[in-house]
Amino acid sequence: MAEAARHPDDAKTPEEVYRYLVDRVAGMESQNQGLKEQIRQLESDKRYIETQKIRYEREVRKLKSEIEHLKTPPLIVGTITDIIDTSRVVVRSSAGPRFLVRVSQSVKPVTLKAGARCTLNQQSLAIVEVLPSTYDSQVYGMELVDTPTETYEDIGGLEKQIMEIREAVELPMTRPDLFEKIGINPPKGVLLYGPPGTGKTLLAKAVAHETHAIFLHTVGSELVQKYIGEGARLVRELFDLAKEKAPSIVFIDEIDAIGASRTEAMTSGDREVQRTLMQLLAAMDGFEPRGDVKIIGATNRIDILDAALLRPGRFDRIIEIPLPDTEGRYSILKVHTRSMTLSDDVDLVEIARLTDGRNGADLNAICMEAGMFAIRKEHGQVCHEDFLTALNKFRCDFEKNHKLMTAGVMFA
Ligand code: ATP
């Protein structure tokens, strides 16, 4: 083992002094190496901390601007009604009144168009931005994404009504040449009326399926809006979308919600409903009878509908969808039991006879209930007794609900 270098004071010979100095230099060099390594480590830590700092600063800036955004007051949505010149425009706010307002310099004059929607500053009501012309999301929601799957085979009975609606809606869409040859205008729309659950919606969907038309389904009450002019705008956008998507069928269920007769004594709510009806009448007048847009209305209360809706030129065909008779009920039962596994003893004629006064929806429910009884008994097929039990249960439920309803009326 090499002898350790002595301290120069203890060293006796020059070799010992030399060895001592060489060892010291080697020790200091290795110390220096260690310190350099430490510096490198600290520098890389510093770099990491600096990038972290930049990242956090960016985050803080983003959050601050988000806070600013959240603090900014909302803009009012309005509609441009008239353009006086590029800096002065008449707008109607969604709350109703009209104002003459200035236009922000950031708004391009070409985008200013009567009817366009815009945002207004809360204080000055100056136009801040012209909104892109899109349909109301509610109108988009009315479009069924796929063409309905229901066909005429899914409808029991109603042969005469199917024929009438086919002539009025399907034929003008599939064979417009026939009408051109004879020289008549086909009906613009069809109104289906009758008690609830008799297949009005089903019929409209089957027509849309048969014509491969886009089906725009809305309910009258959906078109009644809280703010002035909003209902009318929805109707306008609904028909614009129907024209854009043509061939299409606009189906308005419960049309009585907007189409009830107008009376003299009116609240502001009634006036808004009336404005919506006027827009509907104008929209119906505005489209081509030979075009690809057809309107089907449905109501349970034809007695309260406004005469303007019923006059020829609007709903040209008014088709009654009555409660099914015994034969109709038999056909409906056949439709709804088509995919059921029935035992040989099932007598649908008798079930049809026993269900006097019931509509298609009731018959559908009875078939489903009979199926449920069969599942409960683990029979594997539905027998006649299941139908009778279902009928009985349905009758009891109906009477119970009826009693509750009448009690509700008494308590109210
Ligand atoms: P509402 O006036 O209450 O809107 P509606 O007349 O539009 O009722 P639908 O919605 O068409 O009635 O019918 C409800 C259900 O009843 C249908 O989904 C269908 O299962 C059944 N139904 C009604 N009528 C018939 C029918 N003629 N043939 C087969 N099924 C029917």
Task: Tell me what the structure shows.
The protein is α/β, with parallel strands linked by helices. It has helices at 14-71, 137-141, 159-174, 176-182, 200-211, 230-245, 256-259, 268-286, 307-310, 326-337, 348-354, 360-377, 384-411, and strands at 76-85, 88-93, 98-102, 117-120, 127-130, 189-193, 214-219, 248-253, 293-299, 315-320. The strands form two sheets. The chain has a five-stranded antiparallel beta sheet, with no helix packed on it. A five-stranded parallel beta sheet has the order 7-8-9-6-10, sandwiched between helices. Helix 10 (326-337) packs across helix 11 (348-354). It is flat. The model has no long low-confidence stretch (mean pLDDT 81). The protein binds adenosine-5'-triphosphate (ATP). Adenosine-5'-triphosphate (ATP) binds next to helix 5, helix 10 and helix 12.
Bound molecules: adenosine-5'-triphosphate
**Helical/strand content category:** alpha/beta
Tell me the series of helices and strands, N- to C-terminal: HEEEEEHHHEHEHEHHEHEHHHH
How many separate helices? 13
How far from one another are the termini? 112 Å
Task: Tell me which oligomeric state these chains represent.
Answer: single chain
If you compute it from the alpha carbons, what radius of gyration comes out, rounded to the nearest whole angstrom? Answer: 39 Å
Query: Which percent range fits the helix content?
Result: 40-55%
Give a quick account of the main beta sheet: strands, pairing sense, barrel closure: 5 strands, antiparallel
